[in-house]
Specification:
single chain; about 280 residues; five-stranded parallel sheet; five-stranded antiparallel sheet; globular
């Protein structure tokens, strides 16, 4: 595919890739065209891009091949448009600690390179995201209510918010693209109430899922046998409330793809499992 606008924004604005920098594009067979778009955008600014194509990993968080992990540690910048997420891997963490600027883009689509959240003004996204993060930092409790029936309360006392701004200019900076959310880990055991999920759930097609929390754990889940099965397979700690996030990207679109949907301005989301 021709170099798309979203790839140029990622390279020039979000990561500020410079002439001569070692840029690693990690992709897989299902995202090869997207990987090529980032490769071409990096070459346009005079960087030294290298494209590595893996077989698609089987699950999010699975470690990439050892050769890929080594190349990630040696790069100045890593762009990862992949089918399964490299975010929560040892390879990504070690590359971050080695100083690489990394943009993780699990399940990114060709459409996202042409419209939607990736085309946002990330200077403005950064400003809003930092404002929301500061609010979370100074507050101690959260209550979420909706007309559909959500009424969930939990503590964030002593916890620090994270700002996924889309601006990754410093050594060791890391985030998603599209970006735009402020998120925080609720205090374990503090969540009580009900969530009515009226947006997308990763790899689950069901809608209007009802989750009841008691002392931080999702004790009852209705409306999705697949979600229950996924949590059972993930182990005994999979039902803990692990994250609360607020979307801050005015260009992001609500769809079945959570990479972009969780960034939509005016929405919030939760995650279950390991925080």
């Amino acid at each position: 595919m021709a170099t798309a606008l979203g790839a140029r924004i990622a390279v020039r604005d979000c990561l500020r890739i410079r002439r001569g920098e070692k840029v690693l594009v990690v992709t897989d067979q299902q995202r090869l065209k997207i990987g090529m778009a980032f490769f071409e955008a990096a070459a346009e600014v005079g960087a030294k891009p290298l494209l590595v194509v893996m077989q698609p990993l089987l699950r999010h968080g699975e470690e990439p091949p050892a050769q890929v992990a080594r190349l990630m540690r040696e790069a100045d910048v890593v762009l990862a448009p992949t089918t399964r997420s490299l975010t929560h891997t040892k390879a990504r963490l070690e590359a971050t600690l080695a100083g690489a600027r990394i943009a993780s883009m699990p399940r990114i689509t060709e459409d996202m390179l042409r419209r939607g959240g990736l085309l946002a003004d990330y200077r403005e996204v950064k400003k809003l995201t930092l404002r929301v993060a500061r609010v979370l930092d100074r507050d101690e409790n959260v209550r979420i209510t909706t007309k559909r029936g959500t009424d969930l309360s939990f503590s964030i006392s002593g916890r620090r918010a994270h700002a996924d701004t889309g601006i990754m200019h410093k050594r060791g900076d890391f985030g998603n693209l599209p970006a735009g959310e402020a998120f925080i880990a609720p205090v374990e055991g503090s969540a009580n109430g009900v969530v009515v999920v009226d947006g997308p759930v990763p790899e689950v097609e069901d809608r209007d899922i009802v989750i009841e929390f008691k002392n931080g754990v999702a004790r009852r889940i209705e409306g999705s046998r697949k979600l229950v099965s996924m949590l059972r397979a993930a182990g005994k700690n999979a039902r803990w409330l692990a994250e609360f996030g607020i979307g801050t990207n005015p260009k992001a679109r609500l769809s079945s793809n959570v990479l972009e949907s969780e960034k939509v301005l005016g929405t919030c989301h939760i995650a279950l499992g390991d925080n």
